[in-house]
């Protein structure tokens, strides 16, 4: 019901020429994929998962784009979004809806909560990517769909982790990977739809020792590939968050289904 | 949203502790111990205390308290770039802004309320595992904290000792390799014996993409870490952290207690202080004491307490005695002891006399100098003459005498020798190939055998000949090693027959 | 076990409705989970608005019917907790159980589950879309993921909400009554 209302408003505003131009989405073919998180039917076992084709925003959502969203959705502005949806640091460094419209800011929007990110993606007819979709996309480099076995791929990503977060992120628009997607690595952490499915136990050394009362069904996740530090770090960070949390280094991008209805 | 993840577990633990406390009270030996007795494990008393934490190498002051208290510890995680070596930057992840992290000191039986804060400017989530905590993950399960957040959990310090703490967030090895470790001391209820100095030293191995001392910003190298091939092995997180004006200090006759930890992530330490013997080592940080120890093993993720009394002044170098780590990877720290020397214990160098060895040569310094000069291309006539003189003695002087006079009728003279002066090439060949048969030198005939001096190399021959040519009225001149080399290559037969 | 009769329930709901009408004039506080507006369906097939329980204290959690291990324990814990409440709280409290698994937890399945656990009229077992489930889990701080077998791997958290929908207490204690939860309910 919410979506229909937004859609109607969007059509009206599009007519008025207010809406920002459509974002650039890249097409990802999907396919079989071995995730770092075990996907087997029996808990803890690895199995190849099947990722349906999907479309992914080519870059993280920028501050300019988020500002346009705030103009249309004042309920998501800083100070208006309720505490249960966004913590006290939400958008503390902007963008604000009342920044001049001609001030282009290509930096990725950060300090956004999961709820805010969902609302944005909702407003353009999409949603946040699932972890599997994100991991699938992030496995690529400039020439290959799955570069995860390459130590150079891992080392490049680890180098980003080595830099402290004090520097503000640069503008989006790094080199494209084989699918045409940019900035999945080296810019910001990104929300995923099922971030609260990534529950490594708070103490992530309990591999293979499931506390089954605490995590019904399988115990906490054991990593299938513990050497892949680059991906482990993402999982560790996302699993430490709650939905209203915001981080200076955490942004997001959206997906749309390649065909048919949203999941 | 406040999480209460382990409430049930904590309740059960509390019930157990209550029973344990009763058990302790029943044990007669325990009831007799110290002023607190069984009450040391009872509920905390008095006002809550905010623990004083210190940055390495300093240690918080000893605890003077005879009752268990509620102690509040606040520790902050800061990710920051610092120098790991001169001109080499590395992004460390730290507890309290230092590597190792802040030193925590509590008393056995204290109830510790632990706050872990993750600076909002950090990129990573972190937690903490304290080896002194009895409970799931040593606290790690209850302290997983995102940037900009704070976690709190409470534990009772059941065991006394010196314990490592470290971050246990996946990937654990990387968090530790980036410097996330430190020490927590749980003092026994009766306290520790007084010493003059307490210091905090912690070894760690570090893995960078570049080589040892390669300048610039260096990233963490995961492959090297997995292969256990460290680039640096350091005390307190940086080369020179404890040397020069940052060396530890003490005076002669003082007692020093070192809390020495090993954060790893991989290597075991063979901890040794050059020139000192540990009077007492609480090896592995446990309760038992070993005495008169030269080198003690500190496991990765472990610690020890070493105590000794300083007796003579000097710089005492602390090393990991897997010695290439000390001299090629940086595992070096210094304790500088000042005060009056005590010759009865250590006299310093008493005698520097010449040891002739089997070449029976006096001072070979001139030879060394000439060799160096030759290598640098700055060899002078003076150098050669001096070196030649040193070499002549003991090799040539045995027959030709120290003054070159020879022995009449037996060995020809070298002094003012017409034979040597008339054919330089022939002269060069003599030490190389020897000389046999009849020669006339300065009008006197000689018929003897001089063996080839095959133990001499080209430089030595050149220097000896240069010396001879410039001594005792000989005409002078200079023979180079190249000249000798050419002569050697020609391999002409002994020149004697043609000369006579 | 104290159960509500249908008559008691109707009476209570009438009071709640009146109170609700008064409350509707006052906006929901910023830290209330009722900021989220979702249209769900309960075990009787009736529409259930997330936020319709405003005005009463609520015990909320998530489950799925095929769960063998912990979910039955969650039901049991909540039942025992309700029994442990003081009468004034017990009379007002509602229980909302949201399914992770709307695909399999259809309305008839929810009805059957409610019967199996002897849920009285306080209890609402509800389902929405999968996106709805993900949002509610995010609000309540519950983690879950679906495995390839169709089973769910999930954390077990019971939240006590006050009349305005603010989370006042959470417990992960399952199979037993958490005294802290009972104590917190006194002041709700």
Helices and strands, with pairings:
The complex is a heterotrimer of chains A (263), B (500) and C (188).
Chain A: H1 2-16, E1 25-28, E2 31-33, E3 49-51, E4 54-57, H2 63-72, H3 114-123, H4 131-138, H5 151-162, E5 189-190, E6 215-216, H6 229-239, E7 250-251, E8 255-257
Parallel strand pairs in A: 5-7
Antiparallel strand pairs in A: 1-4, 2-3, 4-8
Chain B: H1 7-26, H2 28-32, E1 49-50, E2 70-85, E3 88-95, E4 104-107, E5 111-118, E6 129-130, E7 150-156, E8 161-166, H3 172-177, E9 181-187, E10 197-206, E11 216-218, H4 222-226, E12 232-235, E13 248-251, E14 255-264, E15 269-273, E16 278-282, E17 290-293, E18 295-298, E19 302-309, E20 314-320, H5 323-328, E21 332-338, H6 365-376, H7 381-395, H8 397-400, H9 418-422, H10 424-433, E22 435-441, E23 444-450, H11 458-469, H12 481-490, H13 496-499
Parallel strand pairs in B: 1-2, 2-5, 3-11, 4-9, 10-14, 13-21
Antiparallel strand pairs in B: 2-3, 5-7, 6-8, 8-9, 10-12, 14-19, 15-18, 15-20, 16-17, 16-19, 20-21, 22-23
Chain C: H1 6-24, E1 39-41, E2 47-49, E3 58-63, H2 71-84, H3 87-92, E4 94-99, H4 107-116, E5 123-126, H5 130-140, E6 144-146, E7 152-155, E8 158-161, E9 167-171, H6 179-186
Parallel strand pairs in C: 3-4, 4-5
Antiparallel strand pairs in C: 1-2, 3-8, 6-7, 8-9
